[in-house]
Amino acid sequence: MITTIYFVRHALPDYSSPEDRGMPLTEEGKLDSFSVAEKLSNIEFDYVISSPYQRTLDTIRPLVDKLNLQIETDERLGERKRGSASDNTPDMVKKRWADFDFHEVGGESMNSLQSRNMEALNDILANHQDQTILVSTHGAALSSILNYYDPTFDYEDFNRIRCFTPYILKAEFDKSMNLVAKEEIWWIDKN
């Protein structure tokens, strides 16, 4: 049997917000969240789980409201903990992808991000076998999961999808929790 997960990367956030965790969607992002609902409203989800960050919750809110579903949150699905804003330059991002143990002062390494996201994903897969699941997430978090299953997924792949807000990826897992198929379903490129 197959467990199907639809990963939804959040819609466009308001980067002027001083707090990462509470960062809301822009007005454009809010409108795009209704497009996510339109794209996925024909799917019968058995379970919905999200990062507790405001932008991930707001991105799937129109869908879960339309389908009358409940959202569970999991801290482990949160975005990579960042250092100072000045440390989030393209060169720093490349450095993090080149060395998964590297992290800026106050920030989180890609290894740490990947470990906690995979711990959460493994729990989801173990507890919801043969179900269809919605996971609302972040770009770096999802990319760390994709890298776990395919170590050739690197900075260039991350950089390709970093402006896809929102972004929907369908992934299928077998009973042994192996990724057996993945498909990019839909995205809006905000580049």
TrEMBL record:
GO terms for cellular component: cytoplasm. Transmembrane segments: none annotated. Gene3D superfamilies: Phosphoglycerate mutase-like. GO terms for molecular function: phosphatase activity. Substrate binds at R55. It comes from the Bacteria. This is Histidine phosphatase. The lineage of its organism: Bacteria, Bacillati, Bacillota, Bacilli, Lactobacillales.
